[in-house]
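Case 285 in the screening queue. Each case pairs one protein sequence with one candidate compound; here the compound is guanine. For every case the pipeline is the same: read the inputs, emit a complex structure as tokens, and attach any notable structural observations.

Predict complex for case 285.
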Amino acid sequence: MAKLIDGKAVSASVRAQVAQEVQELKAKGLHPGLAVVIVGDDPASRTYVNNKKKACAETGIYSEEYALPAATTQEELLSLVRSLNQKPEIHGILVQSPLPEGLDEEAVIEEINPQKDVDAFHPQNVGRIMIGNFHFLPCTPAGVIELIRSQGIEIAGKRCVVIGRSNIVGKPMAMLLLHNHGTVTICHSKTRDLAEICREADILVAAVGRPKFVTENMVKPGAVVIDVGMDRDENGKLCGDVDFVHVEPKAGYITPVPGGVGPMTIAMLLRNTVTAAKLQAGWKD
Ligand code: GUN
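Case 285 output:
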């Protein structure tokens, strides 16, 4: 029986810390503010954006939403980002992805002032993460590290395997585990002997986007299994990248879906917004 890592509880504690810090900053005249930009009407994106706004309100962070039609042009979107870059009450800018067909997401990210890039997607921030001299960490991988730490699990010296190599999760996840002195392997769709490699992992992070992809034969007894997936099973029910029912008895620790990594992502976004405010106020180097 694995110990369940409760993302809701850990995220509540991060949010409480953020709320406390927001109060302290406000008392000193600094009110952290986040702008969330959504283009088009993707229902999943709409839910994420609503959750982000609600989380801001609950922690005392000022937020603005910019909901643009799917027909928005690249220039209109870039122009909005430029105006948000100039707005003093906005410290963090988040452009919800995916953007509708025809819009160049990379160009939009590059237009964001790196000090306001609370997703840490700008090439300058990605470079900073590579070097280990960063202001912000991307929300999902940062949330995973927080979950591992919350259990008092040591990463240093451990064999860590990340399945998935996306820019948002897999690559930065591997880098953060490396910064924490893990011995890291990144697996992907072309990896040979995937199950064998995964079975070596003391810490296994699944970020593939395929329902129940990680099966019991891919897990070492007692391993820490972190499930970043948000998938639908054959019945349309929400599930993760890990076959929870069969893996859970074998793992040492496991994150559920929902209620594992998911709640952490927004908590880390709030923390990044506070960091961004302090950075722009010159209160943090
Ligand atoms: N879409 C899904 N996850 C994310 C995220 O972390 N940031 C942004 N901007 N868009 C997303």
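Case 285 observations:
- Residues 94-97, 119, 139, 265 surround guanine (CB under 6 Å).
- The CA atoms of residues 153 and 224 lie 9 Å apart.
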